[in-house]
Design a protein that fits this description.
single chain, alpha+beta, 6-stranded mixed beta sheet
């Protein structure tokens, strides 16, 4: 009897252990891989980096420019063709904007599309402090913070300001790109920085998905090339339910 009880207890403990291992494996797999078949996904993120100068109004010099370095971020949200049920985007939320690594020179600020011009700009009215919310609509109207409810582009601009001043009376023409930075001795390493933010996709069905995105900017040799770009594949972006 005692032996039978011991065998039964061993079997029970063995089964419990198998169940616990299976559950833990599923949890670990989810933490690594996230959602594998969600209704909408990010197909890619593209970052285009350049630089430019803002001409001072009252100056005796032909060129009197306050230099900035800008990074335009394009986030492409698409419907998952392998998801068979009908879903509608209610909101896309970008929040927890953080400068993880600050540049050695300048100050990084975040901007969205200007509400009046509909363009990426450094206008104070388009400044983003910590969060940005787009509502789902029949079609995208990004200057009014609306995105098509079946997917579309979201645009952000990260600008490194207060980099210095370039003055000249000799140049007949100048290139408004990263080569301007080299004219005042700025190097690529001095302007590199890293940002992170959360992007949430909320659906009308009340399903909610969130991911954290980390971007390094600018990449490449912007001082020599003038403009650089890179693309992050959506396969490397992990969403989780919340």
């Amino acid at each position: 009897m005692r032996k039978n009880r011991f065998i039964k207890m061993f079997i029970v403990l063995f089964v419990i252990s198998i169940i616990a291992i299976t559950v833990i494996s599923i949890i670990v797999k989810y933490q690594v891989e996230g959602e594998t078949n969600m209704p909408f996904e990010i197909s890619k993120i593209m970052v285009i980096s350049t630089a430019g100068g803002i001409q001072k109004e009252q100056t005796e010099n032909k060129w009197d420019l306050d230099l900035i370095q800008s990074n335009d971020v394009y986030i492409d949200i698409i419907k998952n063709k392998n998801y068979n049920k009908e879903e509608i985007i209610d909101k896309i939320i970008i929040d927890n904007l953080t400068i993880e690594t600050k540049p050695l020179k300048g100050e990084v600020k975040t901007y969205r599309l200007d509400g009046e011009t509909g363009a990426l700009t450094n206008s104070e009215d388009a400044r983003v402090e910590n969060s940005l919310e787009y509502t789902g609509s029949e079609k995208s109207d990004l200057k009014n913070l609306q995105i098509a409810n079946q997917g579309g582009l979201i645009l952000l601009r990260f600008v490194n300001e207060n980099l210095g001043n370039y003055t000249s009376n000799d140049d007949t023409e100048i290139r408004h790109d990263g080569t301007l930075l080299g004219k005042i001795g700025i190097t690529n390493e001095e302007i590199k920085f890293t940002v992170s933010f959360d992007l949430s996709i909320e659906l009308k069905s009340e399903k909610k998905y969130k991911t954290n995105i980390v971007l390094e900017m600018p990449t490449g040799d912007i001082v020599q090339e003038g403009t650089t770009n890179y693309q992050m594949n959506g396969d490397n972006i992990v969403f989780k339910r919340y």
